Amino acid sequence: MSNSQLSEAELKKALGELSGWSIEAGKLHRQYQFKSFVEAFGFMSSLALVAESMGHHPEWFNVYNRVTIDLTTHDAGGITAKDVELARKANQLAPSK
Ligand SMILES: C[C@H](O)[C@H](O)[C@H]1CNC2=NC(N)=NC(=O)C2=N1
């Protein structure tokens, strides 16, 4: 997977296919809300394994049943295809998303 920053056009196309995600402060951003802390933490545990297998890791924050995620590629200084892929996998893992 290319490690270069996505162009504006590539980013726009990717956002069109990523339900619930937006750009905030130059990062791919989404907040998920779950039924409980256990469900939120289960989601984080599953996504952590995906992230580790990709060698690509989220910036995230959990309060009770909410998980806020920001994705950027530190090595590239911006959003790359890896961030889009991780966002797609997060949406797949989140219950009823
Ligand atoms: C060597 C290792 O693969 C790199 O440091 C990875 C680890 N996880 C990473 N995660 C994110 N989000 N951006 C990176 O640039 C990055 N680099």
UniProtKB/TrEMBL annotation:
Spans through the membrane: none
Enzyme Commission code: 4.2.1.96
Keyword Cell cycle: no
Pfam families: Pterin_4a
InterPro entries in UniProt: PCD_sf (IPR036428), Pterin_deHydtase (IPR001533)
Catalytic activity, reaction form: (4aS,6R)-4a-hydroxy-L-erythro-5,6,7,8-tetrahydrobiopterin = (6R)-L-erythro-6,7-dihydrobiopterin + H2O
Taxonomy, superkingdom: Bacteria
The entry's keywords: Lyase
GO biological process, one term: tetrahydrobiopterin biosynthetic process
Gene Ontology molecular function: any one: 4-alpha-hydroxytetrahydrobiopterin dehydratase activity
Family membership noted in the UniProt record: Belongs to the pterin-4-alpha-carbinolamine dehydratase family.
Full protein name: Putative pterin-4-alpha-carbinolamine dehydratase
Organism field: Chroococcidiopsis thermalis (strain PCC 7203)
